[in-house]
Design a protein that fits this description.
There is one protein chain. The chain is an alpha/beta fold. Helix content is 27%, strand content 20%. Helix 3 links the parallel strand 6 and strand 7.
Length: 153
């Protein structure tokens, strides 16, 4: 039992004894309540729509760009179906974002920009997350994450 004892005064008055046990019990009950009912951190997730089983979807070369995620934080990209004209860029906003903005301007008006993302074995998970973030930032709704193309590895 916890108590506060005060010494007897010279005047002969009784000492005051305060029992702190109920207050400690109430404190632990409040702490337990708030720990159980509190959300520590909201989860942050990106929505990734997965395709249904079925035939593959053909896309127009004029509205497509392929991003191949390489090691060393590099991205090989090419427009349409011209892997021989591939260029290299990085993940920084002034690099990948500029490529995607340039690509969106080149897509014909009635077509939606489509991005094919092909990570290699050297790419990290963070690289893929960075590219998916850029898809959201640049409002590119049509993209696909595929296996790496063997001819480009």
């Amino acid at each position: 039992m916890a108590a506060i004892n005060t010494p007897n005064s010279k005047s002969g008055k009784k000492a005051i004894i305060v029992d702190l046990t109920p207050m400690v019990d109430l404190g632990f009950l409040l702490i337990t309540f708030f720990v159980i009912t509190t959300n520590l951190q909201e989860q942050k997730v990106s929505k990734l729509n997965l395709p249904s089983n079925g035939d593959s979807t053909a896309i127009a070369a004029s509205s497509a760009i392929t991003l191949q995620l390489l090691g060393n934080n590099e991205i090989r990209y090419y427009f349409g179906n011209q892997p021989s004209a591939a260029s290299i860029t990085g993940y920084a906003p002034n690099q990948l974002r500029q490529v995607l903005l340039q690509f969106k301007q080149q897509v014909p008006n009635k077509q939606h920009p489509q991005v094919v993302i092909t990570p290699t074995n050297d790419a990290t998970y963070q690289n893929l997350v960075d590219v998916l973030d850029e898809m959201a930032i640049n409002s590119i709704a049509r993209y696909a994450v595929t296996d790496a193309i063997p001819s480009l590895q």
